[in-house]
Amino acid sequence: MSHDLIPDDLWIRRLQQRADEVTPVVSTDESVTLRRGRRRRAVRRAAIVGASAAATVAIALGAAPVLRLVADDTRPAEPAVSATAGFVPSQAQLEERDRDLAQMAAHNGMVDVPEVAIVRWVPSSEVSIAEADCLTAAGYTITNVTALGFETSYPGDQEAAYMRADFVCVAQYPRITP
Amino acid sequence: MVGSGPVDDEIDVLTTGRTRIDQDREFTAFVTAAKSELGKTAWLLTGDAHLAAELVQDALVRTYVAWPRARQNDPLAYARRVLANARIDLWRRRRREVLSEPSSLPDSARVDESIVVEHRDELVRALARLTTRQRRIVVLRYLVGLTEREVAADLGVSVGAVKSQASRGLSLLRTHLGTLDTSESRAR
Fold first, then answer.
1. For residue B27, which of A22, A82, B13, B175 sits 20 to 30 Å off, Cα-Cα?
2. Strands, DSSP E only, in chain B?
3. Between the CA of residue A169 and those of B50, B99, B177, B184, what are the distances in Å?
4. Nearest-by-Cβ selection for B42 from A26, A103, A149
C-alpha cells in the first residue's frame, strides 16, 4: 500500500490539512454557554444545600431555615475586620465604587438597583472577609472564608436573591483601592 | 447523549461578587478564543456538527463550573479533556448527517463543495472504522497535535497504550484514506 511510499510524518501533515479543509463550522454561543454554566453551578449549589439542610433540620427541629433570603434588607452586618471607620475616601475612590457597583448590577441583571449606604471602607485584603460576614448576617451559609474569597451555597432558584444580597454587602463595604 | 468519563464536575470554591464578574469576563474571553479549536476536536470525535456543538457546549459548561481551578492551569486542556472523555453513543447512527450539510462549510471551502463533501465523507468514514479509544487517541495525537504524554494524561491511560493505539489507528486510517494527495483526488 502507499504506507511504503509516504513517510508517516508527511502523511500526518496531509491528514491535518485535510481535516482543516473539511471541518464544518461548529457553532458556540458565549452568552448561552455562560447562562448554562451559571444555572448548572446554581443547581449544584442547591444540591449541596439540600444535603447540609437535612442534617441541620434534625438539630433545629423546625427552627429558622438554613437560608434566610434577603430582598431589600440592607441592614448592616458587623464584620470582624480591622477598624477603618475613620477612612475618608477620595473622589476617585468614590467614583470607582460607583463604577464597580454599576458593573455588578448590570452583570447580575438587576433591574431595581437599591441605594445602599456605606457602612465602612475596608482594605483590599479584607473585602472578602467583610463580604462573607455581611452575607452570613443576611442569613447565608458562608464557609471557608479566606482573603481570596469564600464558599457559599444556595438553592438554584434563588440566585437572583443571593445576587441582590451580595450586591448590598459589596456596596456596604467598599474596598480601599490604592 | 453526551456525558463525561474520568473528568468530574467541580464546583467553584472561592467566589465573591467582584471576582465572579471578573471570572465571567475571563471565561467569556476564553470561550471566544477556544471555541474554534474545541469545535474542530469535537467534530473529529463525533463526525457530526450538531453533536459536536452539543459536546462543546457541555464541555464549556463543565469548564465554567470548575473555572476557579481550571483557569489556574490550562482551561483549554480541561475543556478538551471533557470532550475527549465524553460518551458519544450516536457516532455511527448520526455520522451520515454530516454528508448533507454543505451549508455549514467554512467560506474557504465553498470553492469546490463537492470535493470537500467527498473528502469529509471519507474522513468521517475512516475515523468511524477505528475503535472509540483509537479514534480519541488518533484525533488528540495527530489532529490536535498533543504529545503522547499529554494524550495519556487527558484520557487516563498509559503512554504505552497511546503509542500502540496511535500506531494501529494511524495504520488503519492510512489504509482507508490512501495517499491523501489533493491533486490526485481532484483529478479523478
1. A22
2. 2-3, 87-88
3. 43, 55, 62, 68
4. A26
Using the Cβ of B71 and the Cβ atoms of chain A, whether some distance falls under 8 Å is answered with no
B44:A23 CB<8 A: yes
Residue for grid cell 470548575: B66
Please provide the size of chain A in residues.
178
Give the ipTM: 0.76
Dump pLDDT digits (tens) for B25-70: 888 899 999 999 999 999 999 888 888 998 899 899 989 888 878 8
Q: Which of residues 110-169 of B touch A (CB under 8 A)?
A: 116, 119-120, 123, 142-143, 145
Nearest to A149 among B15, B56, B171 (CB): B15
Per-residue cell: B105:
462549510
List pLDDT tens digits, range A120-157: 998 877 888 888 899 899 988 887 777 666 777 777 67
Question: Which of the residues A5, A14, A22, A34 would you substitute to probe the B interface, choosing the one with the greatest number of B C-beta atoms within 10 Å?
Answer: A22
Put simply, whether the predicted model's pTM sits higher than 0.80 gets the answer no
Which pLDDT value is given to residue B16? 59
* Contacting residues of A for B15, CB less than 8 Å apart: 149-152
**pLDDT per residue as tens digits for the range A53-89:** 443 333 333 332 322 233 333 343 444 444 556 788 8
Chain B residues with CB-CB distance to A105 below 8 A: none
